Amino acid sequence: MEKNVALSVFDSLSSGVRLDVFRLLVRTGADGMVAGDIASALEIPSTNLSFHLKALTQVGMLSVTQEGRFLRYRANIPQMLDLIAYLTEECCGGHPEQCADLGALTCCTDNAMATLSSTRTPSS
Predict the structure, then answer these.
(1) Sheet holding 70-75, edge to edge
(2) 3-76 in CATH: which number?
(3) Percent of the chain topping pLDDT 90
(4) SS3 of 120, please?
(5) Can you give the residue ranges of every domain in the chain?
(6) pTM of the model
(7) Number of alpha helices (DSSP H) and beta strands (DSSP E) in the chain
(8) Long-range contacts made by residues 114-121, C-beta under 8 angstroms, separation at least 24?
(9) Which residues, 6+ apart, have CB-to-CB distance to 28 below 8 Å?
(10) What's the whole-number average pLDDT of the chain?
(11) pLDDT tens digit string along 68-103?
Protein backbone atom coordinates (compact mmCIF):
# COMPACT_ATOMS: atom_id res chain seq x y z
CA MET A 1 0.00 0.00 0.00
CA GLU A 2 1.24 3.46 -0.80
CA LYS A 3 1.27 6.28 1.73
CA ASN A 4 -1.32 8.36 -0.15
CA VAL A 5 -3.74 5.40 -0.20
CA ALA A 6 -3.25 4.86 3.54
CA LEU A 7 -3.90 8.56 4.16
CA SER A 8 -7.12 8.40 2.13
CA VAL A 9 -8.29 5.36 4.09
CA PHE A 10 -7.51 7.02 7.42
CA ASP A 11 -9.30 10.16 6.29
CA SER A 12 -12.40 8.17 5.39
CA LEU A 13 -12.34 6.26 8.70
CA SER A 14 -11.84 9.43 10.76
CA SER A 15 -15.61 9.94 10.87
CA GLY A 16 -17.30 8.19 13.77
CA VAL A 17 -20.22 7.17 11.55
CA ARG A 18 -17.96 5.71 8.86
CA LEU A 19 -15.89 3.84 11.43
CA ASP A 20 -19.09 2.39 12.92
CA VAL A 21 -20.29 1.36 9.45
CA PHE A 22 -17.00 -0.30 8.59
CA ARG A 23 -16.81 -2.19 11.89
CA LEU A 24 -20.41 -3.35 11.49
CA LEU A 25 -19.66 -4.66 8.01
CA VAL A 26 -16.49 -6.38 9.21
CA ARG A 27 -18.67 -8.28 11.69
CA THR A 28 -21.05 -9.40 8.94
CA GLY A 29 -18.21 -10.84 6.86
CA ALA A 30 -18.98 -11.96 3.32
CA ASP A 31 -22.74 -11.58 3.86
CA GLY A 32 -22.51 -7.81 4.15
CA MET A 33 -25.67 -5.78 4.61
CA VAL A 34 -28.05 -3.78 2.51
CA ALA A 35 -28.02 -0.04 3.09
CA GLY A 36 -31.40 0.07 4.83
CA ASP A 37 -30.32 -2.57 7.34
CA ILE A 38 -27.10 -0.65 8.04
CA ALA A 39 -29.13 2.50 8.67
CA SER A 40 -31.45 0.63 11.03
CA ALA A 41 -28.65 -1.12 12.90
CA LEU A 42 -26.77 2.12 13.49
CA GLU A 43 -29.87 4.32 13.84
CA ILE A 44 -28.68 6.65 11.09
CA PRO A 45 -31.03 8.39 8.64
CA SER A 46 -30.69 6.80 5.18
CA THR A 47 -29.99 10.17 3.58
CA ASN A 48 -27.06 10.72 5.92
CA LEU A 49 -25.80 7.15 5.55
CA SER A 50 -25.54 7.28 1.76
CA PHE A 51 -22.92 10.04 2.02
CA HIS A 52 -20.80 7.90 4.35
CA LEU A 53 -21.20 4.73 2.28
CA LYS A 54 -20.07 6.61 -0.81
CA ALA A 55 -16.97 7.92 0.98
CA LEU A 56 -15.97 4.43 2.17
CA THR A 57 -16.64 2.92 -1.24
CA GLN A 58 -14.57 5.56 -3.04
CA VAL A 59 -11.44 4.71 -1.01
CA GLY A 60 -11.98 0.98 -1.48
CA MET A 61 -12.89 0.10 2.10
CA LEU A 62 -16.31 -1.16 1.00
CA SER A 63 -17.53 -3.02 -2.04
CA VAL A 64 -21.10 -2.69 -3.25
CA THR A 65 -23.27 -4.95 -5.38
CA GLN A 66 -26.71 -4.36 -6.80
CA GLU A 67 -29.36 -6.86 -5.68
CA GLY A 68 -32.56 -5.93 -7.42
CA ARG A 69 -33.41 -2.51 -6.07
CA PHE A 70 -31.10 -2.86 -3.07
CA LEU A 71 -27.39 -2.18 -2.65
CA ARG A 72 -25.42 -4.67 -0.55
CA TYR A 73 -22.25 -3.38 1.07
CA ARG A 74 -19.34 -5.51 2.28
CA ALA A 75 -16.14 -4.58 4.08
CA ASN A 76 -13.05 -4.96 1.91
CA ILE A 77 -11.11 -7.21 4.29
CA PRO A 78 -8.04 -7.53 2.01
CA GLN A 79 -7.78 -3.71 1.94
CA MET A 80 -8.02 -3.64 5.74
CA LEU A 81 -5.26 -6.24 6.02
CA ASP A 82 -3.13 -4.29 3.53
CA LEU A 83 -3.52 -1.22 5.74
CA ILE A 84 -2.49 -3.18 8.83
CA ALA A 85 0.47 -4.62 6.94
CA TYR A 86 1.46 -1.12 5.81
CA LEU A 87 1.38 0.08 9.41
CA THR A 88 3.43 -2.82 10.70
CA GLU A 89 5.84 -3.56 7.85
CA GLU A 90 8.71 -1.78 9.61
CA CYS A 91 8.05 -3.64 12.87
CA CYS A 92 11.24 -4.99 14.42
CA GLY A 93 13.45 -3.15 11.97
CA GLY A 94 11.75 -4.61 8.89
CA HIS A 95 12.03 -8.19 10.14
CA PRO A 96 8.45 -9.07 11.10
CA GLU A 97 9.42 -12.68 11.79
CA GLN A 98 11.14 -11.35 14.93
CA CYS A 99 7.80 -9.95 16.10
CA ALA A 100 6.12 -13.37 16.40
CA ASP A 101 5.84 -13.00 20.17
CA LEU A 102 4.03 -9.67 19.74
CA GLY A 103 1.00 -11.59 18.49
CA ALA A 104 0.27 -12.49 22.10
CA LEU A 105 -0.09 -8.78 22.90
CA THR A 106 -2.98 -8.26 20.49
CA CYS A 107 -6.63 -9.19 20.63
CA CYS A 108 -6.42 -10.41 17.02
CA THR A 109 -7.27 -14.04 16.54
CA ASP A 110 -4.58 -16.47 15.48
CA ASN A 111 -6.33 -16.76 12.10
CA ALA A 112 -6.25 -12.99 11.58
CA MET A 113 -2.57 -12.84 12.53
CA ALA A 114 -1.78 -15.69 10.12
CA THR A 115 -3.68 -13.91 7.35
CA LEU A 116 -1.82 -10.70 8.08
CA SER A 117 1.54 -12.48 8.04
CA SER A 118 0.74 -14.11 4.69
CA THR A 119 -0.19 -10.75 3.11
CA ARG A 120 3.03 -9.03 4.10
CA THR A 121 5.46 -8.38 1.34
CA PRO A 122 8.40 -5.98 1.36
CA SER A 123 6.87 -4.02 -1.53
CA SER A 124 3.39 -3.59 0.04
Answers:
(1) 33-34, 70-75, 62-67
(2) 1.10.10.10
(3) 65
(4) coil
(5) 3-76, 78-119
(6) 0.77
(7) 7, 3
(8) 115/81, 116/81, 116/84, 116/85, 116/88, 119/78, 119/81, 119/82, 119/85, 120/85, 120/88, 120/89, 120/96, 121/85
(9) 74, 75
(10) 84
(11) 999 999 999 999 999 998 888 877 776 766 766 655
